[in-house]
Design the sequence.
């Protein structure tokens, strides 16, 4: 073995505590990156394989009614590969033992063979017998949530008729990987089901014999969907087409792809923090090692070792430390990646899961870690190779000290001698102390960034579910109904207040931009479902014009006073221009509102509604639900409290888990920085501390002098970490600004407090580790050496 390599091994063993601390910090950064990249690759690979194997469609469109003779014309659209017409409608379910009404999306299965597109992945049972109209296949998560098995029956109100349906199969579908009911934010597996029935049974129930009301298409490779969608909309407009959309806008796929984008954001941001701190730590260790080995460097050069050999020796030390961290981080990242992917597998319905992180995720994380460590120590190594042999073998010039600012004030007289020594040591090395403060502050910042999610979600719930919604139940109707329907709901048991709403599908155009969206018509002053501005509270709707969210204004490039062209996608399909009269801030979706009378006037209709909000008496809830289950023209029933519970439950399964994980990462970061700082201080001041022990200082006093320095730096780091954490939280919230939701940048004082307490605890653990080493200090051996 080369002599320098033997020296390298001795140095690594001598610095094993600091090497391990740095390696843990590097491993944390590598682990986060491998975890994120591995989860991204696994989710994307699983989705791609699932979509391809079960022929997930590329384009979707719902309509009122079209004859099947229209299908060949759709197939002739340039770029279209496969066309499959079908029937899709909603029904209300009455499940034995479940008080609340549930909603089912009914989707038809073709008369001959399996579906061409969006095929079912049967988990148990079989497809329906087309000769038996009562048979259905149900989605797996609803069956599990309601404890339904093959052969069980459920009652359903299908187009005003109550029917008994029997389950013969349990399946998954690529179209419903993330099954969300009408108006919901998250899947509610107990209250929202997907039922697949025979086409003949659904056609008979909805008077669609020889017709269809929904169509899906696949496209030839490399065919952009935009041109196909334009032609499809023109053909289906006379048949009540509500506007086609591409796979990227299909709600289930959109959620999945958004999750992958969020993981990519995490893979970019968080590892950078850990690798920057790792570079700083390696610089501290190597710089101190080179300072103590000036004489050794001089001897090596005197014996003929070149600058390149000396520099390469110290660079190898850095690379070994980084490699230890990379290996640890790779195992950590692989384990966390598999665990993270399993969490997502519970959220999304996949028939299989491919956890196959590609080698490039390990190579990227490892390469960046090595690069960060080498860049971090480049300056220290450069100083080593520049030393001439004669200069290196001379002791370094002692630093020039002067009376500190603290010593010139009266405050110094109030402090005892050990405390003055602590302050003197910190402020005489401002650069080193400042970098240590930033390193510890980063751990506070990481924790604040994680805890901010809980604060932001709580704020989102308070605004969206509590302040803006006063109703208990929302009922969606199968079609627009006259004002008399309001009296029908007022007469239901337990109903205290009723408020109608008219939802209208449109395509909005402003200049070159357009967006398919929904406008909601509400009373001028709402009592149950409020138009709520996060910054200003409830909004009264003006007599005319649009009130739009800031997100929709951003999408369309609109501002107050602009006139937006609305292409209505139902009824007589008028095209009108409407001015924007106000822009408001909301965290969910990109809503647009008009006064109910204005929408009906625009549509040349009487005062019709298709959604009804109810406030109810909880004591009569069971009687009300029993009536709603039997009511015709009801397509879905949504409970506000159930939506809040599902939201909290989903967040508890994901956000709280990740907050705990990042708390561990932040603790590792704080331990790594504080431990290295204290160990370097012990190495530098070992002779001084031993001298103090010999002249009569107690073990507690020298521990206080050494560890008090770490405590002071930690306390100084807390406000710095809070500032950095606030900045990172704002950046993270901005990066999660999507069309579906925005994360409000809210940090409660308690989050700052928890972050500081965890960091102080981690620093205390590091101090105890160094204190044990200080207790074993060999006074005679230390005093015999110059260093």
Sequence:
């Amino acid at each position: 073995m080369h002599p320098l390599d033997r020296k390298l091994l001795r140095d690594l063993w001598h610095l094993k505590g600091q090497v391990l601390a740095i390696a843990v910090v590097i491993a944390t950064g590598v682990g986060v990156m491998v975890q994120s990249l591995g989860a991204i690759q696994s989710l994307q690979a699983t989705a791609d394989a699932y979509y391809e194997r079960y022929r997930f469609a590329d384009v979707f469109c719902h309509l009122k009614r079209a004859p099947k003779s229209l299908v060949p014309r759709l197939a002739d659209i340039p770029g279209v590969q496969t066309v499959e017409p079908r029937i899709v409608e909603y029904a209300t379910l009455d499940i034995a033992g479940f008080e609340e009404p549930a909603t089912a999306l009914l989707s038809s299965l073709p008369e001959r063979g399996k579906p061409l597109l969006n095929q079912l992945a049967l988990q148990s049972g079989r497809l329906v017998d087309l000769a038996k109209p009562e048979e259905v296949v149900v989605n797996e998560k609803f069956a599990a949530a309601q404890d339904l098995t093959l052969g069980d029956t459920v009652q359903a109100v299908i187009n005003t008729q109550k029917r008994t349906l029997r389950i013969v199969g349990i399946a998954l579908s690529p179209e419903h990987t993330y099954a969300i009911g009408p108006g919901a934010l998250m899947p509610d597996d107990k209250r929202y089901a997907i039922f697949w029935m025979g086409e003949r049974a659904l056609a008979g129930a909805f008077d669609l014999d020889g017709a269809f009301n929904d169509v899906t298409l696949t496209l030839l490779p490399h065919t952009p969907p935009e041109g196909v969608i334009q032609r499809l909309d023109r053909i289906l407009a006379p048949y009540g087409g509500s506007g086609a959309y591409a796979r990227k806008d299909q709600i289930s796929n959109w959620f999945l792809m958004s999750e992958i984008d969020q993981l990519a954001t995490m893979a970019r941001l968080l590892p950078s923090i850990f690798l920057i701190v790792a570079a700083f730590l390696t610089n501290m260790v190597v710089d101190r090692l080179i300072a103590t080995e000036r004489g050794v460097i001089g001897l090596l050069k005197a014996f003929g070792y070149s600058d390149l050999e000396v520099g390469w020796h110290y660079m190898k030390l850095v690379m070994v430390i980084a490699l230890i961290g990379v290996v640890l981080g790779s195992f950590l990242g692989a384990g966390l990646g598999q665990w993270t992917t399993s969490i997502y597998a519970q959220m999304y319905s996949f028939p299989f899961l491919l956890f196959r992180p590609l080698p490039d995720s390990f190579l990227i994380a490892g390469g960046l870690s090595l690069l960060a460590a080498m860049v971090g120590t480049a300056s220290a190594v450069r100083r080593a190779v520049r030393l001439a042999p004669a200069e290196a073998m001379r002791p370094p010039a002692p630093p020039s000290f002067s009376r500190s600012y603290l010593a010139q004030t009266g405050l110094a007289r109030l402090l005892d001698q050990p405390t003055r020594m602590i302050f003197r040591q910190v402020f005489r090395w401002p650069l080193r102390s400042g970098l240590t403060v930033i390193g510890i502050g980063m751990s506070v910042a990481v924790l604040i960034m994680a805890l901010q999610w809980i604060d932001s979600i709580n704020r989102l719930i308070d605004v969206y579910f509590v302040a803006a919604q006063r109703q208990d139940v929302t009922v969606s109707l199968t079609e627009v109904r006259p004002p008399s329907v309001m009296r029908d709901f007022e007469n239901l048991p337990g109903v205290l207040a009723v408020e109608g709403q008219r939802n209208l599908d449109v395509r909005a155009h402003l200049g070159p931009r357009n967006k398919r969206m929904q406008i909601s018509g509400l009373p001028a002053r709402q009592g149950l479902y409020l138009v709520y501005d996060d910054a200003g509270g409830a909004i009264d709707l003006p007599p005319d014009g649009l009130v739009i969210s800031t997100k929709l204004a951003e999408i369309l490039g609109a501002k107050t006073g602009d006139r937006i062209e609305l292409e209505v996608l139902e009824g007589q399909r008028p095209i009108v221009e409407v001015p924007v009269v106000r822009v408001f801030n909301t965290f969910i979706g990109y809503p647009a509102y008009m006064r109910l009378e204005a929408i009906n006037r625009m549509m040349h209709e009487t005062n019709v509604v298709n959604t009804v909000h109810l406030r109810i008496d909880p004591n009569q809830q069971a009687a009300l639900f029993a009536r709603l289950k039997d009511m015709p023209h009801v397509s879905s029933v949504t409970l506000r409290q159930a939506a809040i519970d599902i939201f909290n439950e989903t967040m508890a399964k994901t956000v709280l888990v990740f907050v705990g994980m990042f708390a561990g990462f932040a603790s590792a970061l704080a331990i790594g920085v504080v431990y290295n700082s204290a160990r370097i201080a012990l190495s530098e001041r070992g002779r001084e501390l031993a001298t103090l022990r010999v002249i009569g200082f107690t073990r507690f006093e020298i521990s206080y002098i050494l560890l008090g320095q770490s405590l002071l730096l930690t306390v100084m780091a807390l406000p710095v970490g809070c500032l950095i954490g606030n900045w990172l939280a704002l950046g993270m919230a901005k990066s999660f600004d999507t069309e579906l939701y925005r994360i409000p940048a809210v940090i409660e004082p308690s989050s700052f407090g928890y972050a500081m307490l965890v960091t102080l605890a981690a620093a205390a653990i590091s101090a105890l580790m160094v204190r044990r080493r200080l207790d074993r200090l060999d006074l005679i051996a230390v005093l015999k050496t110059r260093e």
DSSP finds 22 helices and 22 strands in the chain. The chain has a mean pLDDT of 83. The domain at 495-616 is CATH 2.40.70 (Cathepsin D, subunit A; domain 1). The longest strand covers residues 495-510.
